[in-house]
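User: Sequence recovery, please. Input:
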């Protein structure tokens, strides 16, 4: 079986729709097939990385709990768009540890090395 480089870009807010959860579910499903998975949080998706979220009042589960388990499934390449953080006034200390900030140039390089890109 040929291993493919799959980049999942998560652009959806964790509370605006089910798209954020569906993206995380797709990541877990793809991990079962032994692919090299990388995850990039951009735009409103950066809110998924905020620690200590409590969306229970919206009858939702915090995505941070699931994101923290990704290394168990062999998914350790987690990235966040630096520009998206800046535009939303989110400091790096507020997001989950182990997530690497990327500039626009770094993101272009990351995208260029992928076999497939899945957007959520």
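Assistant: Recovered sequence (120 residues):
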């Amino acid at each position: 079986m040929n291993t493919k480089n799959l980049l999942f870009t998560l652009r959806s807010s964790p509370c605006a729709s089910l798209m954020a959860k569906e993206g995380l579910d797709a990541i877990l499903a793809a991990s079962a097939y032994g692919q090299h998975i990388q995850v990039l949080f951009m735009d409103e998706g950066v809110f998924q990385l905020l620690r200590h979220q409590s969306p229970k009042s919206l009858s939702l589960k915090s995505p941070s709990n699931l994101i923290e388990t990704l290394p168990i499934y062999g998914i350790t390449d987690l990235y966040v768009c630096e520009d998206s953080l800046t535009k939303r006034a989110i400091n790096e200390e507020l997001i989950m540890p182990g997530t690497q900030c990327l500039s626009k140039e770094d993101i272009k390089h990351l995208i260029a090395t992928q076999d497939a890109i899945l957007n959520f």
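The beta strands are 5-10, 36-41, 77-81, 100-102, 116-119.
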